[in-house]
């Protein structure tokens, strides 16, 4: 999708600090980090706007993203723990409408993010 910022990062049309990629998944540093380590995981293809509208036939991307997150967390040395979250819809303050997950860690996380 031309007007989707994460599609443009996936296509290399706008820069991102990429920490991981394979055929289906890309991970890059969040531009406005909320923890010492804050990585965004996306499907390279625009499968859905959010988790809420991901089709069952596309759901294997969830395993690929979680597996990539597990690998990146290891690579970043997050042995003390981390959080993986997705914002879906306005109540969750979702701001980019391309399915994505946030990996947060590298420090003691206090409560849920507001
Ligand atoms: P959401 O609020 O939709 O769950 O998360 C979207 C995230 O994308 C936000 O944390 C925001 O900082 C990040 N973001 C928005 N635009 C860009 C960008 O151009 N580059 C990067 N690296 N992150 C972005
Ligand atoms: Zn997109």
UniProtKB/TrEMBL annotation:
<feature type="active site" description="Tele-AMP-histidine intermediate">
    <location>
        <position position="100"/>
    </location>
</feature>
<protein>
    <submittedName>
        <fullName>Histidine triad nucleotide-binding protein</fullName>
    </submittedName>
</protein>
<dbReference type="Pfam" id="PF11969">
    <property type="entry name" value="DcpS_C"/>
</dbReference>
<feature type="short sequence motif" description="Histidine triad motif">
    <location>
        <begin position="98"/>
        <end position="102"/>
    </location>
</feature>
<dbReference type="InterPro" id="IPR001310">
    <property type="entry name" value="Histidine_triad_HIT"/>
</dbReference>
<dbReference type="GO" id="GO:0003824">
    <property type="term" value="F:catalytic activity"/>
</dbReference>
<dbReference type="InterPro" id="IPR036265">
    <property type="entry name" value="HIT-like_sf"/>
</dbReference>
<dbReference type="InterPro" id="IPR019808">
    <property type="entry name" value="Histidine_triad_CS"/>
</dbReference>
<dbReference type="InterPro" id="IPR011146">
    <property type="entry name" value="HIT-like"/>
</dbReference>
<feature type="domain" description="HIT">
    <location>
        <begin position="5"/>
        <end position="114"/>
    </location>
</feature>
